[in-house]
Protein 1
Amino acid sequence: MHTPLIEFKDVTKRFGNRTVLERVNLQIYEGQVTTIIGLSGAGKSLILKHIIGLIQPDEGAIFFRGKPIAGMKKTEIATSFAQMSYMFQGNALFDSLTVYDNIALPLRETTNLKKAEIDRRVMARIEQTELTEAAHRYPSELSGGMQKRAALARALITDPQIVLFDEPTSGQDPVRKNAILSMIAQYQRKFNFTAILVSHEIPDVYFISNRILALYDRRIVFQGTPEELENFDHPFTDEVINSMEALQKELTGLYSKRQFKIFNHVQMRRSKSGEFYCIVFFSLQELNTIITKFGHDAAQDVLRDMGLYIDKHFGAIGGFSTRRDTNELITMLPYANLSEAESIIKDFVHDFHGQVTRTIQAAACKSVLGEPTELTIMAGIAQGQSTSNIDAVIALAKSQQKEIGRLHCAAGE
Amino acid sequence: MAFITNSQGGSKNETKGGPGALVLLPFTFVGRTVIDWVDNLGAATIFLFTALTKTFGRKQLFKIVEQIYYIGAKSITIIMLVSLFTGMVLGLQSYHALVKFGAQGALGSLVSLSLIMELGPVLTAIMITARAGSAITAEIGIQRISEQIDALHTMRINPLRYLVSPKIIAAIISFPLLTAVFDLVGIIGGYISGVVLLGVNAGVYLHSIQAYVDLRDIINGFIKVIVFAVIVSTVCCYQGYFAHMRKDSHGAQAVGLATTSAVVLSCVLILVSDYVVTSLLI
């Protein structure tokens, strides 16, 4: 694998007699979204503060693009850190400055840009983070969510190559949490920066992360993809992930992917050999259009309503569901063969076209301005047997998707 | 701290407890306090010089002017009020003392010299400490505990340049100006009580000022107040900047205690340095 962008080698940090990080080894790669997970007070934020140079390690070394920071010249360090930006857990907005001035501050103080150019860039970020109405208000006059977005806008104003997010979703409601994560993912794709997150939002954060680092008992005990983490056999899984997952199904009301797998495993063990089950694969097309036109909140409202409805409908008949990706949901119907599943889906679509469409449409089409837009809901069914590989059945269901609903949003509706 | 006296192999445990340690406790306390003082003095001096090296930079002028407005212009009302009554009381007291010697004609020079050389610089510095110094400590302290100063670091904005340097320079500019206002209004106060209320001849009052007040007295007064400005601004900024490192408290309480310490320490240092500077100037 290529040289890591940031690497920790045996980094130890103590505060008095208390060792917070002990021989921490980790690698962060360029262009990826890397999330550090762990219990509160485990030292996750401390890792970010080491990366940005706010804190120095007591032992060990930190490497930036393969070079030890301790051995760099002052100018090299300044150049390296100038590529980074940091979004604080508590936002760290200047309470005596307006939102506009907070966002403009790094440009005013560290660049020679003209006032008009600064204004253009700041207003662009303000619009992207949906803060236009709050631009000339003070941070204390804003809601927690708006403050987060202002901090995000300030972190991104200098177009950094590396952005560190310290619990960007703390203190937010489920919709807003996912909206912020979705915003980070969108900006990361758009501006191609390297994102390093500290988050508790398991499993939601998996959807936007390329790599997960697990901090447990003062050390990094896992580095890998979210999929690899699902098979990670370690006390960390029981103590940390399980406890967090129990709290983190608020957005859609659905199970996490890992819980889904466990349920599936239990079902398969209970069922007789060769017994059928069905997988229903749902996806929301043009969700990005909703994000672009109506904002991240509207998109998360749609996902929440869809998840709640799926859970309500299929949960009542023994099915269980999970969110597979940002815009994908899957439901397992145990002991159902294909024809039974098709009949269940028919009922679902019938109900869906009645009451549910209106609910989701209301969520998706909030504050419609400009051109009309459409959101298509697709569903596909595939049948499996207790002996068959569930991933293959899911892939088959995905490939057989058909349109089951279309929502039309236009001004005045 | 260990007190090992037996280099031939005496046990460390012997020195940790027992009556010996109890006897040494006051010395330990004094020693630690002195070390802390010296440590802080050194740190504050480095802090001051580092901040002064950041004075000249782009966009600093605007921040300095902003701070002059905050520290200086906004303090004028309180300075004028205090100085008016200080001058009036001084005129009143001095008149009754001078009458005993038949020297009421020297009232103008006594009031003006007292104000210019002593009361003006000291009371101005104390009043600004109470009004602006405490606010500076609280402001920087809150910025410290709410990670705003860390945020400046992450934005590659030097906090000393952005927050501290303009305040120190503004104090150095504002203190002498406010002292001049204090002196002038104080002399007017002395005029009101001496001339208007007690009947001293106006020409005698003014002539006595012109005859006995030297330019050197005025310069010495300004030298003093510049020293006070450096002390007050450094102490107040330093206390706020390192509020998070206080050993006796944390968070908002640390900011509160830092503010109290800044005001008390500034006032004590104003009076101590007043004596030192006066003895050097006389």
Protein 2
Amino acid sequence: MSDSLIGTQHEVVGGPDRYVTGAGCYIADLASVIGEATLFVVRSDVSHGRLVNVGLDEVRRAPGVIAAFSASDVRADLGSVPVIEPRISVSPVIIPFLQPVIAVDRVRYVGEPVALIVAVDRYFAEDAATLVELEIEPLDSVVDSREASGSIQLFDLDNEVARIESSFGDAAAVFQTADVVETLTITVGRHSGVPMETRGLVAEPGPEGSLTIYGASKVVHANQKALAGMLGLSTESIRMREVDVGGAFGIRGEFYPEDFLVPWAAKMLNRTVSWVEDRREHLLSANQSRDQIHVASIAADERGRLLAISTEFWIDSGAYIRTVGLRVADLTLGEIPGPYRFESYSGVAHCVVSNRTPTGTYRSPGRFESSFVRERMVDRVAARLEIPGDEIRRRNLIRVSDMPYRSGIRSAGKEVVLDSGDYVSLFERVHGRTKALADELQHVTSRDESEKVGYATGCFIEKSGLGPFEDAIIEVRDDGTVDVLTGASYLGQGLQKALSNVVSKALGIPVDSVHIVRVDTDRIDVGIGTYASRSLVMSGSAVHLACQELLRVALELAAEEFEVGTEDLIYDCGRISTRGAPDFAMSLGELSQRRSKQSPMGEGLTARARFDKESVTYGFGSHGAVVVTNARTGIVHVKHLVLGYDAGALIDEGVVVGQLQGGALQALGGALFERFSYDNVGNPLATTFMDYLLPTASEAPSMEVVLASSMPLDNPLKARGVGEAGIPAVAAAIASAVESSLACGATLHSTPIMPEAVWELANT
Amino acid sequence: MPEGTEHRRVTLTVNSQTYEVDIEPRRTLADVLRDQCGLTGTHLGCEQGVCGACTVLIDGSPARSCLLFAAGFENREITTVEGREHDPVLAKVQQVIIEEDALQCGFCTPGFVVLLTGLIHMDWKGDESDLAAAMSSNICRCTGYQGLMRAARRLLEPTADSTSDQV
């Protein structure tokens, strides 16, 4: 099956240009080609209840149905129903809150898997799903994260999973004596990645109980290991292969219940099983994110010097703790003080469960939230002291002379060290540009009088290049082109292009001679994955090192071949020649052919390298927004965003710009439109794109990118990751710009910023 | 197809080719194009008629193939993203999308390619904000629309925007 599958037009070959002709190979395309057994997940339609009975007899007799399963079948096969273990941020306190792969005796959110139907296709599976005898005895639901410690419990334990703290200095003392103290309750709404392609998998059984899984991404090797453990198989007997990915944004590729259920069903039936969720299922079951309520305070002196910031916040994790553990709370705590010289800080996070869809990391986790909170509080100080917000920021940003700047705060288990970049100068550039665009707009005369122009600029610290390591393998083909393998996932973020540039530069060969190969665990056996804006820095550096290693090996081989010392060889653009004897020359391709004839296994010229690092690559950024607020309707139209980031060395400027702009529009969505709302018993209200509003071309502002390029020293490419740097301060800048348009103080306190809140601001 | 299922033979003309398919009346055009005709370039992003990833042309006009029943489209000319041989406008749009760097993950791309092709066939006219409204038929989650709007401007040449001053 694999060979026939991958030998068709559906093979993943070629660069992104093939997407314009429809020649992409996404997981649903593979599923369509196979078309023999489709898995459908029957999901709970009750947010909290005792699962009394899952009757599947009638389902099994329905037309087109191949099999149907419930938790009892999983238990009968494996002895128990596995839970999904955390991949990171592992802590003993979360163990009772982990999600079983299928509900056993309790359901805790609408969308939780309760049964599986395998049928000839989705139409018949959906028909059969109406015949499931599902008996759920409803329980009261937990829907308010701040009341989570009440009498209703999800796990017969307190709903507060953990309370985490972070601090430096003596914030309590500063708050007692400061000239100015401001306090505000701030809500960051629940939204998420919502890629245009829904999730899907194809699982194909092979000889001796082996399995090939198509459709993995993000953390492919971690998922391979997790699945092997749950099925009681060796890691090597599971092969994971990526296909084209229609957007990921941190939420796709984590280990979900279906990542167990689909391979398990394939194993049970000993046939290829595919699964592609529909949009409603995606909005019910894929990781949601953000959803925090902060009670924040800030202290300053009368001249606007920021002294202390504190927050106590509640983060609603949804019904279970999934693969990223408590990471979002931890990241939020670590990013609250941001790029300012606070003397002290105190943060407390309450991680609670509720009867909502479970959550995880979405692009810029913790930074969207912390930046909104921090920048709102900075604006409070500005309003209170009647000093412009930009002036407060200018006075308090960390300066070059303060670096390396260590407040003592930790984030994701590592000390935050801010060691490079001219924050003030980038801020000035972004702020200047934002102001100029606003001035231009002000001078337009034909505007309706209820439409008011405003602008503002917010600041943030962004993290990237998270370790611990990544490997790269370079294999030279006979024709001199090269295959490049790393543990990174290609999610449409332009990473192939960036890595091709790294190889092209290091080896002096054309970009189109570089084949970036998608993750296939048979071809590269270790990898960490693509998240935390790490892949350019980690995989890119590993590729860079592997190229150097390849050149070293190539020169040695050529030296043997020509019977000269390596010092007598010249490498230039994929070709090695001998000094003074130009006829003695070989291309990388010829060397590789020679090598494969000599080696026992027939492998050609190849090299492997690992890049590891402990540090996190931090960078500074600043986002400016120019808005037009309609005071009569409360509708906000963002006209311009100015996106400033210190990206370090630019490996591919087009990719950098695309990442910042794409991220910024997602942030704008979270700032103004996107919200997973629930009713008061935990029923989700945003289950279609009519309710969950994504920004379209009409909502998209013009976006200018302003880059700085101070060089981080912790990686050989001197690059910073940019995948998330378009997000952090966009919502904060929009909120502040709206207030500036209405000439009022900093009172907007919730995302999404709804027209009714703006209208109230304009009309009171 | 399981025994006893109601089905019928339907002839579809897609990209100037004839496809004879044996289908249930309830099958959507998108599903038949993908699963029966093997034309998987037409993508399904929501099946709710909102995202536009499944856009095809029916007699030259853009339509959501996820909301239509295939059996109703005999004797109509259907164009999908794969139809560049049959429709040179499609090939031109594809080239401009590449040149303007108007894609990232590529999942929404076929829908936008077909939408723009349809707008050209319909001899679309309007100003900049009309163009943004027309492009709002479809959703892209990756790019922030900057390249897509550049491509749309090049292809459709919006008139000087009388309302662009009105913010």
